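In this section we walk through a basic example: taking a raw amino acid sequence and producing a predicted 3D structure, encoded as discrete structure tokens. The instruction is simple. Fold the sequence below.
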Amino acid sequence: MRPARRLFRLFAPSGAFLLASAALPAQVLVSGPPAPGLNAFDTAVLGLMSKWSIPGAALAITNNGHLIFAHGYGLADKEDSQPVQPDSLFRIASISKPFTAAAALKLIEQGVLQLNTTAFSVLSDLTPPPGATVDPRIYQITVQELLAHTGGWDRDIAGDPPFAFLDTAAQTFNAMPPATPDLLIRYMMGQPLQYDPGTTYAYSNFGYIVLGAVIQRVSGQSYADFVTKSIMNPAGIYRMQPGASLLSGRLPDEVKYYDYPGAPLVGSAFPPLSALVPDVYGGFSTELMLANGGWIASTMDLLRYADNINGQLSPGILQSPPSGFVSYVPPVGTGWGWIFEGSLPGTSTILHLDTGYQINGRVTYAVLFNTRQAGSPSPDILADADSQLLQVAQGIAIWPPGDLFPTYSGYTSACSFALSGPGATAVVGSGSGTVGITVTSDCAWIATSDSTWLTVSPGGSGVGSGMARYSVAANPGSSSRTGTLTLGGKSFLITQAGSGPASCYTTGDGSLNVVNAQLVINESLGVILPIHDLNQDGVVNVVDVQKMINAVVGLACPA
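The resulting token sequence is shown next.
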């Protein structure tokens, strides 16, 4: 008889087209291949973005292990107008934990670790702070208890160690903050447990930091290397990688993170500790929390993992995955609902697998946002998002065919961009031009300018190949100038001629006269314009000539 169906929710603080949304810019770019019959998912995501002031999002969906939907929404970088692509990388926060759990299970399959192995027997090289009193129960904590959040720590009572003690732990050992995983573990060896191990469930970020240290020592590799080589790569996941705490460490194809509107600055986790910084960049350490919440990934990376563990994709990461429902990795087979959520300042994430529990078919979806709402760690944004996406999924009777996984595979993004040329030259007067862009995989682009005199005409964005029109203002100076249009990360240089001394004086014979002035106008504008008696004194003279140049060419030379 089939085991009882259960739904597991885990929350932890830790053609293409354009659609409109009231609280977002007039047109929100939606990148990714068209998905006929699934447009309601776009509507749901855009509604969530408007409600929760979310700059950018990505959503991907599989059915029976086939990627059938992959869209990006809004902006990955508001300041540089970079759109979210279907395979943009996001911090995944606590969804890092199922990868850590799978790595521990892989070591158990290899026979070098057991569920009943005591963690601190493996970590025997770590010592508590000098003079600290060690709670003897810490030596009873097993791998199973770390996986199941029953190690005996309770963050609601004693604080969440990777947030509360990341600097104190380093300073205790005269090290530069923030703490490393080993230093935090050593510091916590001098702190009491709140419960006997194995008796009480209390969600524990720190327990997974300990588990990451166990994996590192048992595997003989760094934690990150073992997870990458033994879990991710065998599942076809090649772009998932450790994230960075600071904006300077932002990786290629990674979004930027934004706190909620009006969020205060916080004390820096990095020297100088007295500095006030945005919480999303410097308020915590992703390097410390890699095993419990520090990875970055795309939506399709998460789907590959969940569907592989569930048995929909092969070869399997785990040869003997846990039977039944163990919560810390996706369940195997049909009839299950499994939801794992993550949250950090600037990040909200959901991975939801349903194999016939509430949705018709075997469906998995992952949605990633580059913000978190005020008042976290309340899970409102996550509960709202999952509720709306689940409701849409429940309304799909027949899922479309096809598989986009081959498109989104390998070590680089599926998005590539090429421009129609390296640049263009503009005359000294005002004018306009176009630049073509060739795009793969229905990716989005926005044309931006770095100069006030060079502007992008309305409609300077799109999804897929297209064209952007630009305008240049007349150059009032004597020197040429250069501006840059940026589209899809590519630069298009516009060089505009300067008026030069001849615009105000002569074109070569040393005198200001009607002949020379007419040459200036013709050369500047590429046209022949008659000279008029602009000051209406009855004669056409150099005063009229210079006024003509000033008016037409956009100069302000003395007449």
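Looking at the output, two observations stand out. Confidence is low (pLDDT under 50) at residues 1-26, 501-511. The CA atoms of residues 506 and 512 lie 5 Å apart. In the next section we compare this with other chains.
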